[in-house]
Amino acid sequence: MIALTHAPHDLVVGTSDGIDVRFAGVEFKDAPGFVGVSAGEPGIHVHLSGVRGKETMSRDGRFNRGLEEWWKRREAAGSDRSENPPPMPGVAVFEGITTVVSDDIGTEYRRSGGQTAGSGMEWDALWVYTPAPPAEARTLRLEFSVGGELTGKYCEFSLSDPISADGLANHAPH
Hints:
alpha+beta; five-stranded antiparallel sheet; four-stranded antiparallel sheet; disordered C terminus
């Protein structure tokens, strides 16, 4: 069982490229095929989201206009056009955010990949870390940085198994 034991009251863990970024969740599940490890390797999925407001709406508008102009240029040039579409506005925001993952037993976690922005999730990011916490770990900590500088914001989780009715802890792997 995982329980959030500490987090910023508003869940905002940093400001990147002028946009507040909020911790949006953590899951322990197998890595998807698009990250840099074998699909199915157990890992930690850290979800982040940009706080929506006037600035994100303005950037969405500029992106949509740029995308429309890109499509027009592409149609005019035909199939020979190799210009990439404009980057989604959330990409610049999430590229500046990093997370340091640690636990109480010193496991070395590495960022194995992730996904930033994308259709329908323009202001969301998913970072995948491996390995998954070992069964012996009792706490997990996520510390956030922007541009390589720690923000002082963190989220901490209890990984301890609940005590069962007979007073024994359930020691199943997490």
